[in-house]
Amino acid sequence: MSFKGFKYKFSAEYSVRKAASAAGIVAFCLSGPVHAESLTELIPSLLKSHNLVKASEADLDAATNRVRETLGGWFPTLNVTAHYGRELQNKPEGTDDTEFVTREADFSVKQLVWDFGATNARVRATEFTRDSVKHTLESIKQDLILRAVTAFMNVKRTADVLALARKSEANIKKQTELEDALVKRGAGISSDVLQAKATLSGAQARRVQAQGALAVARNAYRAVFHTDAADINGMKKPELPEDLIPPSLKDAIELALNENPKLLTADAGARVAKETIKATKSSSFYPTIEAVAEAKLKEDAGGTAGNQQEQVAKIQMSFPFNLGFTAINTLKAAEGDATSAAKRLGESKDLTEQQVRDSWDNLKTAKNTADFLRNQADIQSEFLALARKERQLGNRSLIDVLSGETAFINATSDATSAETDVAIAVFTLLNNMGRLNLDAIRD
């Protein structure tokens, strides 16, 4: 199924485009200031200030510095040792004992010539680790955007539903009072008044439930943005970035396997494990070859009076090998880590594909549901208009009108809620594909 032709507008007027009375409800209850609070204003600052993003940026900075640190394996190393002290030597008979204030400075420069790829493998491992942290940062940003969008949309959804519930309660209460007045004058029906009061109680219960849902939604909003919604009535619903959704599920899965930052993180981790095998094999089973230059400056040292100088330049090979053959265990441990990382990468791919399929189907379901609920709201609007006319002509009871109004309000609330479900489904799909960035947030 393709979503390319799917253009969704978010307003009460669209969800019940034939219901003029619903437009009046929303206009009456949701009127706000001229300035509208939008996600395009909130999310950029959120991505700069959120603790998770800052922590991940610090991780990336640390990983970048570790790459430079590992490259230091190819840089020459200078060792300087100096001492100053008193030296007393008791020598064999026939040789005078010596006692000097001795001074010495030793300088040694070592340059790695070749270690059979161990240092290069370590450098590549730290580079892949840096890439992994970079992808983790992107994943955190995209997940944070999804949380922000969901929290924002849920506040707007529950506020719209609450406004409709309050308007419904007020209208039913007014109709109940009018019918009660008619009964007192002997023109109404007592049973209608009782039924109207029961309907009013139901409307009051829906209003209380809507208030509770809004409070919970505001809590989630506060958890993400670290502040309460400044002006709920001025919250502007975003435009859906439908151009970022591929034409088919197959394309969506392919994009996810190539662009999802969580998968890229796992892939980088598997590459780190492979490079660790190379570094372990080279350092455990092959020698290290270095060029060494040494110079020593001595004065009254070693029982010899006066100044002395020594210079040495050489190529040396070192090969420390544990006679318990633990190098084999070290290599097997590295190979086990690599196998584990590869298997986890495969599992991550399967999970990502499932998430894309689920979010694709959820979007399809949400879109179809929203279509039916909008149609239901349209029909209920037309029925309510006719029922009110028939009531004026005496062909309908008050209960019929109140039932119609309750059904209309419920259908309108459901349609409004379904529109939010569609929006969240779109952004969830983009998140699973790895495309939920600032370009997807639009007014």
Largest sheet: 4 strands, antiparallel
- Could you say what the CATH topology is called? Outer membrane efflux proteins (OEP)
In CATH terms, the superfamily is Outer membrane efflux proteins (OEP)
Order of helices and strands: HHEHHEEHHEHHEEHH
Count of DSSP E strands? 6
Summing up helix and strand content along with how strands pair, one would put the structural category as alpha+beta
Per CATH, the class reads Mainly Alpha
Ends apart, CA distance between termini: 26 Å
Total domain modules: 1
Gyration radius over CA: 38 Å
State the helicity in percent bands: 55-70%
Widest sheet, order of strands: 2-3-5-6
Q: Mean pLDDT, rounded to whole units?
A: 88
Strand content: 5-15%
Number of helices: 10
User: What assembly state would you assign to the polypeptide chains in this entry?
Assistant: single chain
CATH architecture: Up-down Bundle
